[in-house]
Amino acid sequence: MSTKIGVIESRWHDDANGIKKNTTVKPLFDFLSDLHFGNHHAYDYEMACTQDAFVSALERISRSRSTTIAYLAMHGSESGLHLHGGDKITRTILKNTLLRITKENGANLTGLYFGSCLFGSKALAEYLFKNDAPVTWIAGYQESVDFVSSSGLDLLFFNTLLTVRREKSSLSKRQKIEEVARRVRKQMQGLCNSPLENGDANIGLGFSIYVKKKGRTQGALDLLRDG
């Protein structure tokens, strides 16, 4: 059995940000693996510091059709994902890579989760959906987020997802993420809201879960706000 999650992480530490050298999201997925599957090897893990390394890592984790979710953990901005080697993964690079690995490798990705600041916007989701990125859902943050708070929400999200997958196995891929969004919205509304939505500049991460709108519009539906 597997979490079906593939994690790609870049180093968080640099001389300016105060994050310690050994900081990593890996213990979150060790815990989830132990909790749901009785061992901490039930997910794929890759480190990437350059664009080529990132693309190769995404190719490797998607090569296994049992891996259906890519969790991308690295610094981010509105314009891309920032790797510790200095390269940036723009939305165009990401889109082209997803399309190519699906065509060439038969990738089976269902979800794309951005564990990064600012990049997980509705504009990004709409861009990827309109360009036929082969995923059912996209999740991420529109704010510059605190590492501890966002890691806590990431953990709660994936625990909910694994629970829904086990309890609601007969649901379609879209129905499963809709159920995850329903539970997340009820249990973690304050964290998911933006600071503006909370009316407090110190509280809120601006987290969203997007699916493609039904019909011909091909836009993105925010399940935490529009659903």
SSE diagram, text form:
Blueprint: E1 5-9, H1 26-37, E2 44-47, H2 51-63, E3 69-73, E4 75-77, E5 80-82, E6 88-89, H3 91-105, E7 111-115, H4 122-130, E8 137-141, H5 147-167, H6 173-187, H7 189-192, H8 195-198, E9 207-212, E10 220-222
Parallel strand pairs: 1-2, 1-3, 3-7, 7-8
Antiparallel strand pairs: 4-5, 5-6, 8-9, 9-10
Helix pairs in contact: 1-5, 2-3, 5-6
What would you note in describing this structure?
This protein has 227 residues and is an alpha/beta fold. Helix content is 41%, strand content 18%. It has 8 helices and 10 strands. It has helices spanning 26-37, 51-63, 91-105, 122-130, 147-167, 173-187, 189-192, 195-198; strands at residues 5-9, 44-47, 69-73, 75-77, 80-82, 88-89, 111-115, 137-141, 207-212, 220-222. It has a 7-stranded mixed β-sheet, sandwiched between helices. It has a 3-stranded antiparallel β-sheet with strand order 4-5-6. The longest helix is centred in the last third of the chain and has 21 residues, at 147-167. The mean pLDDT is 94.
Q: How would you summarize what this structure contains?
A:
With 227 residues, the chain is an alpha/beta fold. The chain has helices at residues 26-37, 51-63, 91-105, 122-130, 147-167, 173-187, 189-192, 195-198, and strands at residues 5-9, 44-47, 69-73, 75-77, 80-82, 88-89, 111-115, 137-141, 207-212, 220-222.
